[in-house]
Specification:
single chain; alpha/beta; seven-stranded mixed β-sheet; four-stranded parallel β-sheet; 11 helices; elongated; binds adenosine-5'-diphosphate
Length: 323
């Protein structure tokens, strides 16, 4: 291989810069050229491609977001768009592509590989941790800590005013952030898409808390929870318990930003190198991940289609802890 290109695609996640830096420096170490594609797959289509050397990625390991920027490219979902991308890949003498992103980005990479034979390798970058083939995705640990810090702050005001808070955290399809940040911040209950909740179970949990002498309460709710969302939950709870002072906070995009944690910087660094070395060893259409502290490669098909399952033990302990 003479040149590898790297792209950050889909939703941004803290630690993507650490992964990008590792890709660039692994290329330098192995004496191959590295090119950065700006604005996700759109940059492949518009030929927005820059040469990257070890100094291009100085002082970014500690920064959230992605210096290459990212975008959602609808053009890349079309055959014509991918044809243009392929032509630019050829024009720039690119022999392999590292895609740092989520399962949408991997679907795009897999399609490019199938249609044009481009060697592609994925690095899981998403705060939701919903990708099969790695114990943790880049950005997840940072998002967890951001959510936990925010919930801690809300708890201060909840306690001072005897309030019941419904706090929505990110996770449209997966409850990893809700479950773990909820346990870490002492939530009374946690509602996630993987656990089929009903409103009566929630009410009995709230009542249990009240009987145990709790004057304030925190309920953490994943975006994708199926009881109707935080605002409806708050409304129904207020109707049932008019005496409660019920409030809602949606944490939103603060969970996507901020300086990556140590764990995310190390994860991004390891996976960036694993991606380059995977390509050099002839791997393609796979995602680099870490399982039980070892680098493993999972086919794009499995990474996209299989589920990263919630640890049921964590669901069980929520009730034990909420006394
Ligand atoms: P994520 O990678 O975080 O899951 P998206 O689902 O938005 O984010 O996907 C990122 C990009 O990957 C899209 O904007 C598009 O360019 C590309 N992509 C997603 N799905 C496909 C697909 N089915 N075919 C080709 N490209 C796709």
């Amino acid at each position: 291989m003479n040149a590898i290109a790297v792209v950050t695609s889909g939703g941004d996640a803290p630690g993507m810069n650490a992964a990008l830096r590792a890709v660039v420096r692994a290329c330098s170490y192995h004496k191959i050229r590295c090119k950065g594609v700006r604005l996700g797959y759109q940059g492949l289509i518009t030929n927005d491609i820059v040469e990257l050397g070890p100094r291009s990625v100085s002082n970014i390991i500690n920064r959230g977001g992605t210096i290459l920027k990212t975008a959602r490219s609808s053009d890349f979902k079309t055959k014509e768009g991918r044809q243009k991308a392929f032509e630019n890949i050829q024009k720039n003498n690119i022999d392999g592509l590292v895609v740092i992103g989520g399962d949408g980005s991997f679907t795009g990479a897999m399609t490019l590989e199938k249609e044009f034979g481009i060697k592609t390798i994925g690095v899981p970058g998403t705060i939701d941790n919903d990708i099969f083939g790695t114990d943790s995705t880049i950005g997840y640990d940072t998002a967890l800590n951001t959510a936990m810090d925010a919930i801690d702050k809300i708890r201060d005001t909840a306690t001072s005013h005897n309030r019941l808070f419904f706090i929505e955290v990110m996770g449209r399809d997966a409850g990893f952030i809700a479950l773990n940040s909820g346990i870490a911040s002492g939530a009374q209950d946690i509602l996630i898409p993987e656990k089929k909740d009903d409103i009566e179970t929630l009410f009995s949990s709230i009542e249990r808390g009240e009987k145990a002498g709790k004057l304030s309460n925190i309920i953490v709710v994943a975006e994708g929870e199926e009881l109707g969302g935080v605002y409806d939950l708050a409304k129904f709870t207020k109707m049932k318990y008019p005496k409660f002072d019920v409030r809602v906070t949606v944490l939103g995009h603060i969970q996507r930003g901020g300086d990556p944690t140590c764990a995310d910087r190390v994860l991004g660094s390891r996976l960036g190198i694993a991606a380059v070395e995977g390509l050099l060893n002839g791997k393609s259409a796979v995602m680099a991940g870490i399982r039980s502290n070892k680098v493993v490669y999972t086919s794009f098909e499995d990474a996209i289609q299989k589920q990263n399952v919630i640890n049921k033990e964590l669901i069980r302990i929520v009730e034990i802890l909420a006394r």
